[in-house]
Design brief:
78 residues, four-stranded antiparallel β-sheet, 4 strands, 21% helix
Length: 78
């Protein structure tokens, strides 16, 4: 839930919860998902309950995913 920031940096298992920084060293997200998840397409369920097309899924699975810091802050306040 909340994974909206896809990025190409290599991450390792166990790095979930780590910072995602921009080129200026500013915190922009919280790492949470590795590339090529073994769970398959269902990992990428959109807010409306739909899943991506096969073509979009192939693009999405090649990215690591994070929760944007603004989303994380909103979730933490709930």
């Amino acid at each position: 839930r909340g994974y909206q920031l896809g990025y190409t940096n290599e991450i390792e298992q166990g790095m979930s919860g780590g910072p995602v920084l921009d080129a200026n060293g500013q915190l922009i997200g919280i790492n949470g998902r590795l590339k090529f998840p073994p769970q398959g397409i269902e990992v990428y369920t959109f807010a409306d309950g739909s899943v991506p097309s096969r073509k979009l899924y192939q693009q999405m699975e090649a990215l690591s995913w994070a929760i944007p810091i603004a989303t994380f802050r909103q979730m933490a306040q709930q």
